[in-house]
Amino acid sequence: MSGAHSPSRPCVRDRVSGESWIEKLWNAGEQLLVHGQYCAARRELEAAEAAAFQRRNAALLTRIYLPLLETCRQVRQLSTDGLISLQVHAPDHRSARSELKRFAAHGGGVLISGSAKLACTLARRARLAGCPVECLLLVRKGDRTHITHPLDAQLISGLPVVWRPAHDAETLPEPPEKMCVALPPPGDYVAGMAGHSSTTESILLLYEALALRQIRRRQLPSDGWPLMASLRKIRLIDMACEPVTIRLLREAEKLSTHNR
């Protein structure tokens, strides 16, 4: 019938209202970022990014990625400023709820755990609570220990760990395929303690290395939306990864230009 709309093709008014809703999320996220409410800003900006990607709105994505990157950097900084807890033999039945309370008392933190269940559950609870807590997983096989992201809990995906005294646990910057992560003995570390600052530096280095290793291991599409879809999955490993986010931004800019 003339003038009828296909159910699979929303009318222009619906598309515009949807984009307006995404822009409100983006604006709210930027305002929260300006006012230092980083976890709330991340929530709004990630919702805007997901919606813009789903609608294949490259122009909106070009405005979202930089504030989203800055927001995730700030959350990472807050987490590493807080409690850093290394739990090699953490039991799976340890309560994520009680752990979240413990980290929240320090303003946030980083859990490095041998329990995938605890790491995943705590990360999810922290997100819902708006608390800057990040989680990493220790994977052991024989006498080898690797550190990785809970979303990719494989020895081959991680970086080798070497255990050193707290005053000497320094990780050197290296390409991802050569990096070895130095960690202090298991335990809790807060700002001012020996081992806290060096472990903070290790965490900042290893997150990006884990994401870049994913790029090297995967067969990425050459360009366009398929490439962006792959990069968005890699970004889940390190939300504050500048190389991945900037590559997403550049690809969105190309797509936006082509769609004009």
Task: Give a short synopsis of this structure.
With 260 residues, the protein is an alpha/beta fold. The chain has eight helices and seven strands, in the order αααβαβαβββββααα.
Explain this structure.
- With 260 residues, the protein is α/β, with parallel strands linked by helices.
- 53% of the residues lie in helices and 13% in strands.
- It contains eight helices and seven strands, in the order αααβαβαβββββααα.
- It has helices at 12-34, 38-54, 58-81, 96-104, 116-129, 196-217, 224-235, 242-258; strands at residues 83-87, 109-113, 133-141, 144-148, 159-163, 181-183, 187-189.
- Strands 6-5-4-3-2-1-7 form a seven-stranded mixed β-sheet.
- Strand 3 and strand 4 form a beta hairpin.
- Helix 2 (38-54) runs antiparallel to helix 3 (58-81).
- It is globular.
- The relative contact order is 0.11.
- The model is unreliable at 1-16 (pLDDT under 50).
